[in-house]
Amino acid sequence: MPEINFKYAVPGDILEDYINGTYIPRTVWERVFLFLKSKGIDVYSPSQHKGKCTSSYTVVKNTGTTGFQGSNQIGSQTLDVIVYCPRSNYSDMEPYTVQIQNFLSELKEYIRPTGNIMPVILDDSVNGYTQSIEYQTFQRLRR
């Protein structure tokens, strides 16, 4: 299996292999990342995007795993899907967010929305608006 380095970009052959069904993602995060990339979304891992927000993009972040009460074998993992739109395009924020949600609804076998959607805020560090949508997956806990 080829080594994957998501720090800079997804190598074209891995994305193509994912699209062709010959590459199986190793984690839920990787599945969401590759899926959005395959849909043409400008997607990044945390801290990967550099500079100001000049066009809409998305960041996928693993936010942790929690065990279910009374169980040390089953739990849930959460992912934040963080959307960004340029400061000059506030009116694009909701349609872009809805587009991402519609795409991710195709992954209903793997993730589900928790209903936690943060309000839109202005992020001066990137000169854009941002909003976070939380998703969850159920899984066996690693021992």
Walk me through this protein's architecture.
This protein has three helices and six strands; from the N terminus they run ααβββαβββ. It is globular. It has helices spanning 12-20, 28-38, 93-104; strands spanning 43-44, 57-67, 74-86, 112-117, 121-123, 128-140. Helix 1 (12-20) crosses helix 2 (28-38). The protein is α+β, with helices and mostly antiparallel strands and 143 residues long. The two termini are 24 Å apart. Helix content is 22%, strand content 34%. It has a single domain (12-140), classed as 2-Layer Sandwich (STM4215-like). The longest helix is centred in the last third of the chain and has 12 residues, at 93-104. Strands 1, 2, 3, 4, 5 and 6 form a six-stranded mixed sheet that branches.
Number of helices: 3
Could you state the order of secondary-structure elements as H and E?
HHEEEHEEE
> Main β-sheet: number of strands, strand sense, barrel status?
6 strands, mixed
CATH homologous superfamily name?
A: Phage tail protein-like
Low-confidence stretches: 1-9
Taking all residues together, what is the mean pLDDT? Answer: 87
Indicate the proportion of strand residues: 25-35%
Rg over CA atoms, rounded to whole Å, is 16 Å
CATH C-level label: Alpha Beta
Shape assignment: globular
Distance between the termini: 24 Å
CATH topology: STM4215-like
Structural category:
alpha+beta
Number of domains: 1
